[in-house]
Structures are given as C-alpha cells and as structure tokens.
Write a structure and sequence with these properties.
alpha/beta; 416 residues; nine-stranded mixed beta sheet; 25% strand; six-stranded mixed beta sheet; 22% helix; 10 helices; single chain; disordered N terminus; globular
Length: 416
C-alpha cells in the first residue's frame, strides 16, 4: 500500500463525543538572524575531543462571545437547560501517558554518535529519562537528521546531517513511537536520502510526521489508537534555511512547509479534531539561539488551538523557550536540544497524562522532567531538588511563559 493511501501506522480513528477538557495542573519579536546556531556549530566539531569519562548523576529508582440578546424575540431565546455531562464510566476508564522530547541528532561524525559508540545508550541517556521514554504509551521526538548512505550534502549548506540507517536502533531502544521530520535538516542530502529516511522509519515501525514523498504524505495525520482513546499527531515546519529544505508538493518529496500558507495546516487540525480524542501539533519554528518568541509563534500557536489542537509542542531554537496557556491549552514553544550536541544547557521531557473513558478525555496533566545536556554529548536527569527548582524557575521566567511549575514538575496556568 502506498504511503499516500494509508493512514499512518495507527488504526483508523473512532469518532468520540466532544467533552469539556479540564486541564488540571498541566502547564518580543527577535530580529531575524542566521539559521546557523552556536549549538549546531558545537555539534559539527570533530568528535576527537570527547572525554572517555562521563559523570552522570545517580538516578534513584524510579465563552464564546454571545450576541446582543436585546435584538432577539422571546421565541428566539432558547430556554432549554444545558445538557448534563455524562457520568464517568469505570468500566472503560483509562490513563495514558504521552512523552515528548526536542531535537535529537545522531548523524555520523557528531559528538552524540561518538559518545553513543563509546559508551552505549545507557551511558548517554540517563536511566530515569529512559524510563520515562520507554514507559510512555506514545513517545515522540524531533528526528533532525536523515537515515541514508546515499545522496550528497546540499551545496552551500554549512551543517548537514546524515546517519547510517542502523542508527534507528537507538530510537527503538528509547521507545520512540513517533518521529518528527518537519525540520530544516531532513533534506540535507537531497531527495534520495529523504526517501531512505522514510523507508528506514517505516521499516522500524516508527510513525513519522511532517515530511513525506508528497504533500499528502507530509501533511498526513498520524492516529495512534489506544484502547478507548485516539490521539492525533501532526507536524509542520515554518523554517526554511536558505530555501534549501525543500517543501513537499503534490508530486515531489519534502517537508510540510507552512511559512507562507497555513490553511492546510489548520484544515488538518480540524480534520483530526473530528476524528480523535486528543490532537497534538508539533511545530518547527522560531529563531535559533534565543528565548525570545517570534510574533508568528504566538499568532500561529493561538490559531492552532482555535482550530482544535489540545497541545502544541515546538522546537528549532535549540534551547528552551517559554510555556504558555491559551484558552486552557498548553503551548510549549521550544523543547530545545534533547540529545543534539555537547553544549551545556537545560533540556527536558514533557510527560502528558490523559485520563478519561469511552466518552472522551476528561483530564490532562503536564509534567516537566528536568534534564541537562552535558559537554560529554550526553543527557542526564537533574537529580537534586535544588537543581530541579532552578530549572523550573528558569523555564517560568522565559518570555511568553504564564505558568507555574511545582516541585514535582507539574505545570499549571498562573490564573488556574
């Protein structure tokens, strides 16, 4: 079956009742700059300088607006009572977790892959983080490189990333279910390498979103069918590095590119909302190396929520950006580098818990899992309470943030 004619590796979704979504405990325009960041510069250095010793922290176990009623006749004003909410159905009650990470780079010649080859996965991603990732019902991250042995680096592009297809085993070991390809490195080695990437992920049983063999494939919705709950995933890119990351067209491969036209993106979100209980949109946007938000990030983020998104996740700046609630829906503007280079910086997982029953999602909670990317090109969980608190305070201080984060990492809107 061709990619265009199939609903991603998920099963066809079930229609669900629309219910009120209760989000409990979930939680300056920058001048246009170059798309090449200090993070990528660090990632592109020779791997020979990596220290053979990695010191990881020890992980413990573990109202719509109403019109003026004065112009309505008595007959036109409805006096019917509001329908009562359906009672919880214990027989079909569920609790599922969705986990999200930011940018991952396992291209050959990078610090991350040199560390992986030297120390193994357990020496590169700490146990607590791996437990969150593999323990989630659906794990999703940004795959910012290609899997191929074919193609040539795009002429004139400073940083190009290509991994041996065997590297996909690292994603499998990390429990990755959904790989985001809507980014400015998925076309680094041209069309052949992009198509090889699609085949590699398909062969590994990892769903991929945001790039494809044509626009229909690149913009396709992935439906993850869990028992009594359907979660929809959509990914798109706003970033076009020197016009070298090719947008998909009706008859050619590329990314789902939305810088100049967001109509299809909003259409896909609306389609997903009709078919799924929970809709996730993963966006590649913003400016590298800054915590400041582009005006379009807030505009598009809000519009995605208005179109039906229940969660918006962002990346591309290669550092954390703020967290904002809009109409009760959380928007994480950038999850930053997760395992991308050797730059020392905060990173995190976002762990989202959905509770509900056959009638739909009833409650959503969001938890920050605090982490740190180290100079050894590894990522480790922040163990001490003080280091966790410092990371949470940093995140809430970023531009655009309107959330609180408690000592357990639980996120809530400030006005909640």
């Amino acid at each position: 079956m061709s990619r265009q004619n199939r609903v991603r590796q998920g099963l066809a979704p079930l229609l669900s009742f629309a219910l009120t979504l209760s989000l409990a405990a979930c939680g300056q325009t920058a001048a246009e700059t170059s798309d090449v960041s200090a993070e990528e510069s660090a990632a592109a250095e020779t791997s020979a300088d990596i220290s053979p010793e990695i010191e990881l922290e020890t992980d413990p176990a573990d109202a719509s607006a109403a019109g003026d009623s004065s112009v309505l006749s008595t007959e036109e004003i409805s006096t019917e009572p509001e329908p009562e909410a359906l009672e919880p159905d214990p027989a079909t009650a569920y609790e599922y977790t969705l986990c999200f990470a930011g940018d991952v780079n396992l291209a050959e010649g990078q610090y991350t892959t040199a560390a992986l080859d030297s120390y193994g996965l357990s020496g590169c991603v700490s146990e607590t983080l791996r437990n969150y990732m593999t323990g989630a019902d659906i794990m999703c991250l940004n795959n910012e490189f290609t899997y191929s042995s074919r193609g040539a680096p795009l002429e004139g592009k400073t940083y190009t990333y290509r991994a041996n297809p065997s590297r996909v085993s690292a994603l499998e070991e990390l429990g990755v279910d959904v790989a985001v390809l809507a980014n400015n490195h998925i076309y680094d080695y041209g069309e052949e390498a992009l198509l090889d990437t699609l085949d590699t992920l398909d062969g590994a049983g990892i769903a991929r979103i945001g790039a494809g063999e044509d626009l229909e494939d690149a913009s396709a919705i992935y439906y993850a069918q869990l028992e009594n709950c359907t979660v929809a995933y959509i990914a798109a890119s706003r970033v076009e590095w020197s016009a070298q990351t090719k947008p998909a067209t009706s008859d050619s491969p590329g990314t789902f590119y939305t810088a100049y036209d967001t109509d299809l993106l909003y259409q896909r979100v609306g389609e997903a909302k009709e078919q799924a209980d929970f809709v996730v949109v993963y966006m590649h946007w913003g400016i590298e190396g800054t915590a400041d938000l582009e005006e379009y990030q807030t505009e598009v983020g809000d519009a995605l929520v208005d179109a039906g998104a229940d969660l918006v996740i962002g990346d591309h700046p290669h550092q954390l950006q703020g967290v904002r609630y809009y109409n009760g829906i959380p928007i994480f503007y950038s999850l930053g580098n997760y395992w991308f280079s050797r730059k020392e910086e905060y990173t995190m997982l976002v762990n989202v818990t959905l509770t509900g029953d056959k009638n739909g999602v009833r409650e959503v909670s969001c938890q920050i899992v605090p982490a740190y990317q180290q100079a050894s090109a590894t990522v480790t969980w922040l163990e001490s309470a003080d280091s966790q608190r410092a990371m949470y305070d940093y995140l809430t201080s970023l531009p655009g943030s309107n959330v609180t984060i408690d000592d357990g990492g639980m996120v809530a809107a400030k006005d909640a």
